[in-house]
Design a protein that fits this description.
This protein has 121 residues and is an alpha+beta fold. It has a single domain (3-108), classed as Ribosomal Protein S5, domain 2 (2-Layer Sandwich). It has 4 helices and 4 strands. It has a 4-stranded mixed sheet with strand order 1-2-4-3, with helices on both faces. Helix 2 (54-71) links the parallel strand 3 and strand 4. It is globular, with a radius of gyration of 13 Å.
Length: 121
């Protein structure tokens, strides 16, 4: 995933938390902030130390980034997302994680093409 597609700075995270909308399922909390002047979407990831050691946390982040890379053509541009991973993520394989992430994004109002649901299963 390209660096332009990442939320990196603390101020950017705080803007999404304070001004954005949130939605959640058991595995993820998804915050999203509309940015109409931005020609692409960006994601920021938060994986707590409660989820495991550094190897496990980085594995979860890699899987989330990969899921977004596969879904990039189906996600609306002009949004910032912050994804907070919860404890059940540490026990999931990639397919389960992607399916759960798609579910969380759909709950938060992100429109995805129908074939993304099929690929997520």
């Amino acid at each position: 995933m390209k660096k332009k597609n990442r939320v990196k700075k603390n101020e950017e995270f705080q803007a999404v938390f304070q001004n954005g909308k949130s939605n959640a399922n058991r595995q993820f909390v998804v915050y999203q902030l509309e940015k109409p002047n931005q020609p692409y979407f960006r994601i920021g990831l938060s994986v707590s130390k409660k989820l495991g050691n550094a190897v496990m946390r980085n594995r979860i982040k890699r899987m989330i980034r990969q899921a977004f890379t596969e879904l990039k053509d189906e996600i609306d541009s002009g949004k910032d997302f912050v994804i907070i991973a919860r404890k059940p993520c540490s026990e999931m394989n990639y397919e389960q994680l992607k399916k759960s992430l798609i579910h969380a994004l759909q709950r938060s109002g992100v429109k995805l093409a129908k074939n993304s649901e099929i690929r997520g299963k």
